Queue: 2 jobs
Job 1
Amino acid sequence: MTTVAWWNCFAGIAGNMALGALVDAGADLASIESQLAKLSLEGWEIRSEQVLRAGVAATYLDVEVQAGSETRTYTSIVAMLKRADLPERVRGRALEVFGRLGRAESRLHRVPLGEVHFHEVGSTDAIVDVVGTCIALELLGVDEVFSGPVAQGSGMARSAHGSLPVPAPAVSLVLAEVEAPIYGTGVAMELTTPTGAALLAGLCNGWGPVPGMNITACGFGAGTRDIEGLPNAAQVLIGEVHAGEGPHFEGAQPLTVMEATVDDVTGEVLASTISLLLARGALDAWVSPVTGKKGRPAHVLTVLCDPAYAQKLRQVITSETGTLGVRASTWRRWPSSRSFVTVEVSGMPVRVKVSPQRYKAEHDDALSVAERLGRPLREIAREAEEAARARSS
């Protein structure tokens, strides 16, 4: 059996929220502190408190640091982790987390990775949060980590560089690197911090709904502030992966299919709704003409999505079409692996989708080249596909 952890970041995630959730799920805080003592860090203490966030019981952890916390470079943090007598998996996970942060800061400030200076995320409390989280995962025997979509706040947040937009640039870059699913909220504060984003990016093996597992523990890690109507906490589920629904579903991806039948919506609104659904995370969306009650012409709007996006997309369907009901069912699919290569046709780039079965030129790219050259679209697509096939052979 494989032990997994799944994060539910409905109110975002920060370093102390991640560590607090794992302690709440059963990781022994004294053992975590004992392992952290192996780092060359001085002048810190973890304060633990049981709190309520919008009525939900959670563990709030605060790393109290003596005045004058040191600003560290990426290189110095890597050296610190390599010197410490930590379990190998703890060290490897912590290095991966700081590597994600380092690459983001390198891009943001246009400096080489070895010269990156961390401010908030290089301070003692952030190091304790990151390494402590990796230690807690080890104490709980977690082999793989997963997460659902990650909530983001809005507005502006303070940083060592001044006021920054939310999501913070570092958060956006770190999560973009791993193609993490995110969504916005109306909460006017920073929900996901760079440290929290890096923990997810560096630790997660995948994204989506709760994997099939037998739950053995769960916990909530509280954020600092209360949020009206929303528990300011991150949830973690710990469990053992089981075989699921039988060998005929091996390797299958669970999907949610939602439908709504409408007979009073214009074609323009339906087209706009499909575009919006795809922009909000739907895997596919389409409209089928049907004959409704009393012989009236109608349409069935169908949306295919990851279960983690179902609630958000259902709200889009309802608000855009005005339908009085949406129905849903769970399907399975076996998607083929695919990748993209970019080739040139008459000196202009065309992306080609490559799968085990075929090569397919991206329509918009091929159409743009065809229009600029005044040549048939089918010729441009064929040349691009032949060039991609030749490159792969």
Job 2
Amino acid sequence: MAFVIRPERPEDADIIHDLTVRAFAPMPFSSGTEAPILRALREAGDLTLSLVAEEDGAIIGHVAFSPVAINGVHAGWFGLGPVSVAPERQRQGIGKALMAEGLARLKRAGAAGCALIGNPAVYARMGFASDGALTYRDLDPALVQRVVFAGDAPRGELAFAPAFDPGASTPAPPSP
């Protein structure tokens, strides 16, 4: 592949915002909050890892990782999402490459694991699984998935960074 994966830079924020809006606009599951969530994560200091795929000087993809709590405890677990790829470049392995690189970096940094809300058929290919022991509100537990880097698989209620719930009574989990 001709693209490179690198950490986001401060000057990338607006480009990532626009890319995220474009990537999620046609998605029926999108709440339209993905780009504002990224800004809020960045402003709160909760954007633990933010990677972009760049090709010929243009950003064509982005992935974000932020801290999560399980049963109210932050224990080295992170949430994956959102993942954005330019609409004209989707289904070319860019999102998968971004996720793989991000997960590898988290693992090298000593993370215990990573969780997400998403389609099991999509994320199982990246090593994510659900045994029903990790939950998120009243969502189907099969959609609440995790990949374990160290220790035991988590059990309990998953909570995402506050940016995912900007004071609303029903927070939106990260979109797949």
